[in-house]
Amino acid sequence: MDPRGAKIKVWEVxxxxxSFIILNVKAVILLLMDVYRLIIPPxxxxxxxxxxxxxxxxxxxxxxxxxxxxxxGAKTILLDINEEENKMTGDMIEEAxxxxxxxxxxxxxxxxVAAVAAKVRKEIGxxxxxxxxxxxxxxxxxxxxxxxxxxxxxxxxxxGNLWVTREFLGHMIKHNRGHIICISSVLGYIGRxxxxxxxxxxxxxxxxxxxxxxEMRMERxxxxxxxxxxxxxxxxxxxxxxxxxxxWLFEILEPSDAASRIIRGVRRSQEEIxxxxxxxxLMVFSKVxxxxxxxxxxxxxxx
Length: 303
Prior knowledge:
Blueprint: H1 3-39, E1 51-55, H2 60-71, E2 75-80, H3 83-95, E3 99-104, H4 110-123, E4 129-132, H5 147-175, E5 178-183, H6 196-218, E6 224-231, E7 233-234, E8 252-253, H7 255-267, E9 272-275, H8 279-286, H9 291-301
Parallel strand pairs: 1-2, 1-4, 2-3, 4-5, 5-6, 6-9, 7-8
């Protein structure tokens, strides 16, 4: 055997081993940084004077997000298909001394979103934060859904996020500054029965945020943040009463509490926010398990 060839092979092995060791050292550092941030969270960004879009602002979580953002000094731009409820949110903000601009908009309609976004940019300015909160929900067996219901779930929950983000992202990229927030769900992480179209739409939102965050990273737009929010259950969902062995782990949150936790996570620039926060390690760990094991543990969690 040619000694030079042997030397080259040894050198190649050394290079591969060295790069593998470096990779693992980096991985450990990142994990330690994650643990460090759990113990000592980063500082919270100020929202004073920031233009903030909130979709689905007419009720429940969207209304609470808008009210709390306004209390922090943000100038709110409220979008909702329900004109009356949306105006009520705006009035509540203004009565408390905040600033609110209301627009009636069906986020599932791309042309309607484009028209409202053009009006916002012209009359108010370019928002620095976009909270894609608008969503609809149905809980029943898959074959009980009508085609219209399925289209509505996907159009509002997924396409609505895409249409609204598409309108405001360009300015953020240009200035390398801004934050897109999308409300997904724990059901965007794990599939469950009786919510097939809903899970489909929320899995799509999770995929959208991951892909968009990666696109910003590859384009060196680190100033443009992307956050996915994964709530377990918020108390305004009335037709689901989970029967769980560990209710302290799977908290059902009031909209005001959920909004507060979301805003805190956004101000800390978290890429993923789980509600309650203690679900994060459980959800992340579940993805490495085979499906049969996930089902086993899932069945165990339910009484």
